[in-house]
Every structure is written in C-alpha cells, then in structure tokens.
C-alpha cells in the first residue's frame, strides 16, 4: 500500500492566490466551519483532519480540505499518518484584507448549528 506521503501536496504561492478561487472555496458551509476551527487555534496551531467532526463522509471531508488547499486558504502537511492543517491567514490578510474577518464568524455559526 502506498504511504500518504506518496503524493506530494501542492500549494499555490502567495502570488498565485486568486480572489475568485478563495471566494469559491469559502462558499460552502462545511469549508467555512473548517476555516473557523483553524482560526481558533491560530497563530501557531494546526489541526489534524481527523479532529473535524463534520456531518459528511470522509471522502467528502477530504474533498473540502483539498478545495481549501488548492485555493490557498489552508496549508497542509503530513506528519506520520496524520495530515495537519493550518490557516494561511498572513497571505490572505495581505492580499484580501478583511475577508477572513467576515468568513470566520459565518463558520462559527455553522459550527454552532451543527452542535445544536
């Protein structure tokens, strides 16, 4: 069986980030919830994919993480069998000031709705 690290994770550089791609990535409630959870562990925190308890299948959850990574919203890295996630706040705040400040509260509302 191939290891998780057999496929290299690709991330867009700061210069490659596009407003429309970031907005599209943030347009889904589950992805907003992921962003809000990551914002809660900033600035140095990372969360493994397995700690997110989203009401979707593992494959759908993986797709959400991939969408966020490919748009440049998060950075992922593999550590053993875990994939760790970190919000790319510095890049996003410099290119799109205020965008995360609008998105994170929306994600927290999604999380509150999932818990309630």
Folded structure, characterized:
With 116 residues, the chain is of the alpha+beta class. 48% of the residues lie in helices and 12% in strands. The chain has five helices and three strands, in the order ααβαββαα. It has a three-stranded antiparallel β-sheet. A hairpin with a 2-residue loop joins strand 2 and strand 3. Helix 1 packs antiparallel against helix 3. The chain is globular and about 35 Å long.
Keywords, please?
116 residues; alpha+beta; three-stranded antiparallel beta sheet; 5 helices; disordered N terminus
Instruction: Kindly provide the radius of gyration, computed on alpha-carbon positions and rounded to a whole number of angstroms.
Output: 14 Å
Secondary-structure content class: alpha+beta
Task: Please outline the major beta sheet.
Answer: 3 strands, antiparallel
Uncertain residue segments:
1-5
| Helix share, percent | 40-55%
User: Reading side by side through the largest sheet, how are the strands ordered?
Assistant: 1-3-2
Mean pLDDT across the residues is: 92
The general outline is globular
Helix and strand sequence: HHEHEEHH
Strand content: 5-15%
Put simply, the count of helices is 5
How many strand segments? Answer: 3
Q: Distance between the terminal alpha carbons, to the nearest Å? A: 40 Å
């Amino acid at each position: 069986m191939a290891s998780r690290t057999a496929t290299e994770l690709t991330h867009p550089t700061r210069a490659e980030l596009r407003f429309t791609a970031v907005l599209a990535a943030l347009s889904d409630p589950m992805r907003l919830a992921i962003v809000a959870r990551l914002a809660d562990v900033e600035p140095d925190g990372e969360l493994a994919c397995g700690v997110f308890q989203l009401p979707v299948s593992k494959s759908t959850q993986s797709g959400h993480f991939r969408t966020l990574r490919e748009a440049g919203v998060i950075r992922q890295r593999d550590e053993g069998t875990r994939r760790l996630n970190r919000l790319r706040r510095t890049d996003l705040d410099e290119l799109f000031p205020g965008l995360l400040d609008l998105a994170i509260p929306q994600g927290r509302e999604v999380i509150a709705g999932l818990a309630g």
